[in-house]
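Q&A log
Question type: sequence-to-structure
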Amino acid sequence: MSIKIITDSTSDIGLAEARSLGISVVLLKTVFEDGEYLDGVDLTAEEFYKKQAEAKQLPTTTQPTPADFEDVYRNALEDEDDDIIAILISEKLSGTFQSATIAKQSFDRNIYIVDSGTTTIGLRILVERAVYLRNQGLKTKEVVDILEKEKSSIRLYAYVDTLEYLQKGGRLSKGAAFAGTLLNVKPLISLADGTLHACGKARGIKKAYSQVIELANADGIDFSRPTCLGYTGDPTPFQPFKDLVCQTYNNKITLTSTIGSVVGAHAGPGAAAIAFFKK
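Response status: OK
Response body:
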């Protein structure tokens, strides 16, 4: 018996990396005015942000269908005693969880679906945790029980470099965006309970770095479990933030990842985030 782990592409785990982890990825689609693109396949993160900058309307995403999940389930269940754990984007953010649940009804097998309550690098670290537990030899139900318990301790904090995309998405008025740009304001956001929340603002990028770290310190980071830094767009502006975080935590951050379209559509390029399990 083996445990097959499945996630969706909002985890920002690429297909090559997924193969190395021994997991499968169900793809969402990113929708621009000129058509649909398979997330991370037809459109890389770099290409996404380039198209985003040129687009008149914000891109959206479409969830996988139950048939998409049925195909992945069928391919994963190689042996009669294989089990599946699907770890997915928050049900509050996408219908992906619902599609996975509908697809499960076509199989008389042990298929467990975990609503991560998060997405992007927050989802990624929960998947990494599942891979570790599986590789330690735990049984399927033991892995699921730990994930369900620990997912509530995941924290994600980020700063946004530009107000343009929050304004385009209707989350900020034009006047507020203009004033904020003049004052060099960098909004701080958190992802909790499956939704994005404003959790402060900083005057200038260096202050944004320090305030994100302060938010993380207030929770306390459990370095015995996966941690991840993420960025949107060009990685070059992200490097000073990464350097400061690594210096602050003595290089204990385990992962770095691009942030894809789900958060990137609202944050725009130049944003950065940290995701971790709270102590």
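Response note: The mean pLDDT is 88.
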